Fold:
Amino acid sequence: METQAEIDFQSAVSAFSAARNEPDWLQKLRLTMLAKYPELALPKFDKIQYQRWPLTDAHEPAVQASDATALAALDLDYADAKNVLVTFGETVVTTRLDPELAAQGVIFTDIFTAVRDYPELVEKYFMTTAIKPDANRLTAFHAAFLNGGAFLYVPKNVVVKEPIQGYYIQDSTRKQDFIQHVLVVADTNSQVTYAENYATVGTEANLANVVVEVIAADDAHVHFSAVDQFSPATTGYLSRQGNLANDAQLDWAVGMMNDGNVVVDFNTDLVGKGAHAEVKVVAVTTGKQLQGIDTRVTNYGQHTIGHILQHGVILETSSLIFNGVGHIVKGARGSDSQQESRVLMLSTHARGDANPILLIDENDVTAGHAASVGRVDQEQMYYLMSRGIDKKRAERLVIRGFLGNVLTEIPAKRVRDQLTATIERKLENGQKSE
Amino acid sequence: MSKLEVKNLHVAVVDEDKGQEKEILKGVNLTMNTGEIHAIMGPNGTGKSTLSQAIMGNPAYKVTEGDVLLNGKSILELPVDERARAGLFLAMQYPAEIAGVTNVEFMRAAINARRADDDQIPVLEFMKFLDKNLATLDMTDDMVERYLNEGFSGGEKKRNEILQLMMIQPKFAILDEIDSGLDIDALKVVSKGVNAMRGPEFGSLIITHYQRLLNYIVPDTVHVMMDGRIVESGGPELAEKLEAEGYAGVRDDLGIDVKLTDEI
Ligand SMILES: Nc1ncnc2c1ncn2[C@@H]1O[C@H](COP(=O)(O)OP(=O)(O)O)[C@@H](O)[C@H]1O
Ligand SMILES: [Mg+2]
Structure:
């Protein structure tokens, strides 16, 4: 294999962009960021040590097809989903959108089709509002090497009733970077429920760099859920960025079920007056992995509400860090910032941290936080076991109960059931070594 | 027929405040067979709950001497879940609350824990059985969809313990103060549930402070416990004597030197 220094990334990125028929603005953005990213600093997150991870060891970009038959290994259940996009590596496997929605102007397609078919719309929102490409080294790297993703656009006043679902599967049957961008734009007074799943097929060690932007215009309401389950060999930077205008609402429910090392940059900006975000995160950490999750909500607008709820479970020798950052800027009068982070440790070798950070620069606000790191309640265990349930199953029941307040938030039953099954699988794996 | 034997059982707990072991049971002997209902009565603080927890296998209670046998085999080395699967059940005085786990999924897990992986109870069969038991206990469907004991009133918790008993169908059920905090109607309902279980394959040890419950669940044998020992055993008439004379009267009749915690 060629080393990074031997690859002419400049030409390779240009060629990749040309092969994808990308508009000039995107090609230019790629090349600017390619030149810039090595100089930019890595994003800093309290207590999360990931600086030595191979998150910028790019392979030479090339348009390459993946064999969708390999997806059978994942047992994805989208046969009867009305609105669904499935990608595997750089290959689009399925795109489906209810024709009625399409007639109303709803767009849901893979990111490369979107930049070709709706260049102005994508250009307007792509890394302009929720996150800037030069925000840090990893976002710039992302812009330079982007090789997959999706665009969802809901026009003004359109209410999408059926959930929109994306399955973005990393192809690790070979060495290939997975650099995904999902751009969700909910225009004024629209409503949409979007659910996404990430997973890996194959065992190669690869990097994943995912940037999701959710832009909610005035009075828009977005319900967003995600289940991330990258493989043990995947090292990931997973960034989700929300930007809310006046009276917009964004409900996040995210399950961090990865098996490898990930650093999670989860940020929501309450820009408009009266904007409201509910951020719910569950995480299960097993093996030797580290999941470092930095969840931040910033109240910029007046009378904005930001609530963070994170529950996580740690098994074996793994580590889980929950940062909860609530920031109310000066002038954001009448705002509310609340957070709760709780970590349950199942093993004495596990490391857990629930780290509340409140930054309040305005007086006329309400704010609160709760954090804990604890063990499974022995009285609860005794009670369950006294009914004949064995220790491991009893533990899983208690844990599922502990994670339940996020699970119940997920509107699509399919996603909820899948997350429940994923948690069960991860717990069973994690319990094997005990 | 199954047999449960408690032989010269001594149990100690670690006193959290003083950090030292304290002996609670000082040699309890008790033999019961399925088909029989035994009652244990005794003043507060005498060790009734300790006995039930020690039989069930609560790790907070340490057996320092003696044995507990099920069908002639010691169960002291078995963890609580194995004792449960071997046929023991304890309706607890203070059941735990578990948020996020529904009552119904918990009961299904309990039943399935007794069955092979390839022979789990079919959903329909389970629901029919559940509905039947709910009807016996005057309980509504929404109780089973709620989280396990979370936010249940004292009375609801007791009913829920009996519901589990009826679903699980153990060989021996220890009911620890199942009557406390129940009004007369609830007491009748709970008794109806226990009486429905009566039969040659079921035995029960009913722990109570008051004789009242025993009007509804008539025991075959009554034991009086004081200061960590069973001090007298007899028929149902013993319960009436206790009711008439009080624990102090029985103590004085027997010439036992203990102070009752309820005495001023
Ligand atoms: N887990 C425990 N830790 C410390 N002391 C206990 C514990 N359980 C019971 N005891 C003590 O043991 C004695 C007997 O209690 P218990 O068995 O609950 O009596 P009863 O059920 O007859 O009222 C009491 O003095 C009580 O304080
Ligand atoms: Mg008691």
User: Anything to note?
Assistant: The interface with chain A takes residues 56-59, 79-81, 84-85, 89-90, 92, 95-101, 105-106, 109-110, 113-114, 147-148, 164, 168 of chain B (CB under 8 Å). The CA atoms of residues 179 and 212 of chain B lie 9 Å apart. The two ends of chain B are 45 Å apart (CA to CA).
